[in-house]
Amino acid sequence: MERGISRETIKEVLLKRETVETYLDDKPYPTSHLTMELSHR
């Protein structure tokens, strides 16, 4: 993908992430900051 992040890595982060902060008032959709330590990078 554009920044060299594989689809598999994105899926792993979405499944195993920790949410740091969520912004429910962001428009047009709420956003969140996610974190996860990746062992293969």
- Rg from Cα: 12 Å
Assembly state? single chain
Largest sheet: 2 strands, antiparallel
Order of strands across the main sheet: 1-2
First-residue to last-residue Cα separation: 16 Å
Total helices: the number is 1
Please state the average pLDDT score.
Answer: 85
- Give the fraction of residues assigned to helices: 10-25%
Shape category: globular
Key attributes of the depicted protein:
41 residues; alpha+beta; two-stranded antiparallel ribbon; 2 strands; globular
Describe the protein in words.
The chain has 41 residues and is α+β, with helices and mostly antiparallel strands. The protein has one domain. Helix content is 24%, strand content 27%. The chain has 1 helix and 2 strands, in the order αββ. The chain has a two-stranded antiparallel ribbon. A hairpin with a 7-residue loop joins strand 1 and strand 2. The mean pLDDT is 85.
